[in-house]
Write a structure and sequence with these properties.
Elements (H helix, E strand, L loop, with lengths): L3 E5 L3 H13 L3 E3 L7 H8 L3 E4 L8 H9 L6 E5 L4 H9 L4 E4 L4 H16 L8 E4 L2 E4 L4 E8 L1 H12 L7 H10 L6 H16 L7 E4 L3 E4 L11 E6 L5 E5 L9
Parallel strand pairs: 1-2, 1-3, 3-4, 4-5, 8-11
Antiparallel strand pairs: 6-7, 7-8, 9-10, 11-12
Amino acid sequence: MEMNIFVVEDDDAVFTALKTGLESWSFKVTGPDRFDEVMRLFTEQQSQLVIMDVVLPKFDGFYWCREIRAVSEVPIIFLSSRDHPMDMVMAMNMGADDYIQKPFHTEVLHSKIQAILRRTYAYGKDKSNIIEWNGALIDIQRGVIRKEVDLTKNEFFMLTVLVESNNIIISRHGLMRKLWEDEQFVNDNTLTANITRLRQKLEEIALSEAIVTKKGLGYMAISFRRTPHVYPIHHIKKKLGSFVCFLARCDQFVDYA
């Protein structure tokens, strides 16, 4: 079986060099053409291994590593010029299998790839268990469903602010001020309408109660629990740019701040 390696690298020269080398070793190489859609392209490619840079547009490699690891056990190798020990620790904590510093020897990269693939697929075990069905991504092995919901720019920004507040109430004035700082000019009535629409969209993925109104105080994104043996994961993305906002599990919000 031809192994597909998904390379997430924004430097065209480095990507081309990697692609040339990997293809000479009989690997198929693909990569994202948009760095705000890494997860969508990863699931489409059904790759057997991921090579990831740390510094990327939109979100860094640690973020995408955690996103991939939430739905797949595919091996992930970081390839980066950053050599601080904490970068390596962070990569391992996010679920990476190895961390190689640039510049690197192609023979070393090749041997590490072969070793990881051998360990992962030695028994013919296919780790690509993600199926797209009716707009949802289903991980058969882990019993996980990811569903996408389109958000406008304002809805996305408000949700990000509320989730990153970590169960702290954000006043209406504070929320409007943050929107203005991001050049999203809204008034009091527009804010109410945006919150209402956001709640309606969250209701589509059973998160209608995730944003709570504290009368006279403001809004708060809360954590909540459901039946322990049910594990839905909802994938919320920005409409303009289509990138991930956060993952909401049945038992918690995952804070990416």
